[in-house]
């Protein structure tokens, strides 16, 4: 299987992997972070998303950063092809308008992605 065909991991899977590498039990990591074992279990299984505070506490306990966990879990996705195709296919837009829309769309996406990374 190639890298591009693999299903991206969610942050909980990365946390579980890092916890196991650190040889920490789920109960021990939960205690270090100040959360319940069932909550950590739900995070690791992808049933709940950790709050920013919890994610930072987990990362600190695992001797990494929240950004590293998030980046490892979800590398930057490619631009949605459907949006770019719709812009290209619209017969009512001029070439300059298409170019401007693509530039604005790309800039907005990049801003949102960067904001999400900084927020975590």
The main β sheet shows up as: none
From the helix content, strand content and strand pairing, which structural class follows?
mainly alpha
The CATH class assignment of the largest domain is Mainly Alpha
Return Rg in Å. Answer: 19 Å
> What is the helix content?
55-70%
What is the CATH third-level topology name of the largest domain? 434 Repressor (Amino-terminal Domain)
How many separate helices?
7
What does the model show?
This protein has 120 residues and is mainly α. It has 2 domains: 6-73, 434 Repressor (Amino-terminal Domain); 81-119. The chain is 66% helix and 0% strand. The chain is built from 7 helices and no strands. It has helices spanning 11-21, 26-33, 37-44, 52-61, 66-73, 81-89, 95-119. The two termini are 30 Å apart.
Short summary:
This protein is mainly alpha-helical and 120 residues long.
What's the structural blueprint in terms of helices and strands?
Elements: H1 11-21, H2 26-33, H3 37-44, H4 52-61, H5 66-73, H6 81-89, H7 95-119
Helix pairs in contact: 1-5, 2-3, 2-4
What distinguishing features does this structure have?
120 residues; mainly alpha; 434 Repressor (Amino-terminal Domain); 2 domains; 0% strand; disordered N terminus
């Amino acid at each position: 299987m190639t890298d591009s065909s693999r299903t991206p991991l969610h942050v909980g899977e990365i946390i579980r992997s890092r916890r196991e590498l650190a040889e920490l039990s789920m109960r021990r990591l939960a205690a270090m972070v100040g959360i319940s074992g069932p909550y950590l279990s739900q995070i690791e299984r992808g049933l709940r998303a950790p709050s920013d505070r919890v994610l930072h506490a987990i990362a600190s306990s695992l001797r990494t950063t929240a950004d590293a966990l998030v980046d490892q879990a979800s590398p930057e996705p490619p631009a949605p092809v459907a949006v770019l195709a719709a812009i290209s296919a619209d017969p009512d837009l001029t070439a300059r308008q298409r170019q401007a829309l693509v530039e604005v769309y790309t800039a907005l996406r990049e801003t949102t992605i960067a904001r999400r990374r900084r927020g975590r």
